[in-house]
Write a structure and sequence with these properties.
- By secondary structure, the protein is mainly alpha-helical.
- The chain is built from five helices and no strands.
- The structure holds protoporphyrin IX containing FE (2 copies).
- The site of one protoporphyrin IX containing FE (HEM) has 23 residues, from helix 2, helix 3, helix 4 and helix 5.
Length: 162
Amino acid sequence: MTHLERRTAALGPLHRRTLYVVSALLWLTGTFWLYFFYLGKRRGSLGPFGNESATMCLKIHGAAAMAFLIVLGTLLLDHVGLGWPHKRQRPTGVSLLSLCGVLIVTGWGLYYIGEEWLHDVTSVIHSILGFALPLFIFFHARLAKRRLNPALKKGDPEPTTP
Ligand code: HEM
Ligand code: HEM
């Protein structure tokens, strides 16, 4: 019986792995870009190899962002609705969703905002929040594990009615 047939919020192994791989790719490419960006600022120039690597990071980041949107869409379809009755997961779940929302809006802004100062502000917000994304996922998933594993915590084993 699959998790969909059981109708629980638990993610299947493939679903969970895809989410983790795509999130890791987003984080790594964003972080490497930041590394190159600040290295270039300090040295005055990155040189052709550094510039190419930074551009490649953003190209992969953009592709990973699209894959992330697909994964997030699948979570909105079943995970969020099925998980909602579990009151303990709501604060971290809603924070995670809001964070993704801000990353999506600022990511869009990075493509289309022309005004330099606004583009810079958007970049800082996007970079700081993006850097924090794995932490939000970690706390949300860990809370679920604690709830499910009575050895870790007594927790609320059954969903509470909203
Ligand atoms: C309001 C929004 C959300 C709610 C109410 C919610 C609820 C839940 C619940 C109840 C579980 C435990 C499932 C179980 O194993 O029985 C869970 C686990 C999890 N959730 Fe969410 N969630 C929300 C949003 C999200 C978002 C936006 C993401 C990712 C971007 C996410 C990723 C995860 C992950 C990775 C786990 C651990 C699953 C596992 O290891 O099998 N959740 N969530
Ligand atoms: C929902 C998740 C995310 C989405 C939809 C997203 C989307 C985007 C988009 C569309 C761009 C512009 C790419 C370009 O100009 O070619 C971008 C740039 C960037 N992203 Fe993300 N991103 C996400 C998560 C992250 C994460 C986790 C990090 C981690 C550090 C991050 C760091 C960056 C950085 C540093 C830039 C370059 C900023 C700049 O051009 O000034 N992003 N992102």
